[in-house]
Write a structure and sequence with these properties.
alpha+beta, 3 domains, 9 helices
């Protein structure tokens, strides 16, 4: 038999020591080391699934709508539209192109888009949109300025200072503008008008102008007189014509003035008399005869 003392030696050695508990099997399965990666993967998968079912922009749209509804309840809604600089553009056209409605959230208005739509109107050249919280929009317009009336085929169009067509059929009230014709007439009419206006005593009598061969102009006065401008040196020729326009009574009996030859003004009268002006003065010659007379 073994001594009893030896049988209890091991027990005596473990006295005072805490006995290690055996962990349950479920704790081993769901421990951080084994179950943590699974939880993290599940969260990532859930986030991806939610973004797929409810896209991020969808969430943002919901939040934005809630914010705008709240702003309207606080008084930030469109109630007034004020327009300045309008002359030819109708208020109805402006409101239609703005695409806004009374009571809509003023904070949600896209002023750049509104301005773009307004600039599509035929008379609008430039504009500016300003919000004045809590409930007003101010529209500042600069309209196009018509300077000529262009006859193309059987239609008439207003031309602005940039040579562009103003896309409107409402031309009543603009009969006093110079009437132009020719394919490229709108492109060059601004320069022509600037030259014409340098001689006021001639400018007030100008009625129409025709672009000839895409090279030069024929100008028509109110009394029917035709002035043939040169291809180059137009300014010099026009100013020279203005200097002698009121000095010679022969202009009042002339139906054609030819300025195409440099340093010369040729006047043709209804009875086929040609009057030449050069550096030495005027001379008159019958086109059907050989007689010559200085004036």
């Amino acid at each position: 038999m073994r001594p009893l003392v030896n049988q209890h030696i091991g027990s005596y050695r473990n006295l005072g020591k805490r006995r290690r508990r055996v962990a349950p099997i479920w704790r081993k399965i769901f421990s951080t080391r084994t179950f943590g990666p699974f939880i993290a993967g599940l969260i990532v998968f859930g986030a991806i699934y939610l973004c797929y079912v409810f896209p991020l922009n969808g969430w943002l749209a919901i939040i934005e709508k809630k914010f705008m509804d709240t702003s309207v309840s606080l008084g930030f809604s469109l109630q007034n539209v004020f327009v300045e600089g309008r002359k030819n553009t109708r208020v109805e056209e402006i409101l239609h192109n703005m695409k806004v409605k009374k009571g809509m959230p003023i904070l949600n208005l896209d002023t750049d888009a509104i301005l773009k739509n307004i600039k599509n109107l035929p008379w609008v050249k430039e504009g500016l949109i300003k919000r004045k919280l809590p409930s007003s929009i101010f529209v500042y317009l600069e309209e196009k300025r018509p300077i000529a009336l262009w006859k193309s085929a059987d239609e008439f169009w207003l031309i602005d200072e940039w040579g562009d067509v103003i896309n409107t059929k409402e031309i009543d009230g603009y009969n006093g503008l110079i009437l132009i014709s020719g394919i490229d007439a709108p492109r060059f009419v601004t320069n022509l008008i600037q030259i014409i206006n340098l001689v006021p005593n001639l400018a007030k009598n100008v009625k129409a102008a025709t672009r000839v061969g895409a090279r030069r102009w024929d100008v028509f006065l109110k009394d029917g007189t035709k002035i043939m401008l040169p291809e180059s040196g137009t300014l010099t020729a026009w100013v020279r014509l203005g200097e002698i326009f009121n000095k010679n009574i022969i202009f009042r009996e002339t139906n054609l003035v030819d300025l195409r030859i440099r340093d010369r003004i040729i006047l043709r009268k209804p009875n086929d008399i040609e009057i030449n002006e050069n550096k030495t003065g005027f001379s008159k010659q019958l086109l059907r005869g050989s007689s010559h007379k200085d004036i």
